[in-house]
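This part of the workshop introduces the protein records we will be handling. An example says more than a description, so a record of this kind follows:
>
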Amino acid sequence: MLLYVVGQNIRNYRKKSGMTQAELSFLSSTDTSHLGKIERGQWNATLATVNRIAVALDVPMSSLFNQGGETREDYTMLRLFV
């Protein structure tokens, strides 16, 4: 569940910013194929990778763990994860 939430949030923020996967991969020093798997919830990214992606997207890292989407602060999954 957490993998899917993080992946969907990354994809939503990436699309909102008008970035392609290749651009985000370059800015976050993440392999493009890994980024695709992360967005689909098929790859368990490290916290360091999620942090690099958050920095590249210019969003707080905690927002990528937000189960309620970008408009609602719900960090239940983050608390369970950490």
Observations:
- The two ends are 15 Å apart (CA to CA).
- The chain has a mean pLDDT of 86.
- The CA atoms of residues 28 and 56 lie 6 Å apart.
- Helices lie at 2-17, 21-28, 32-39, 47-57, 76-81.
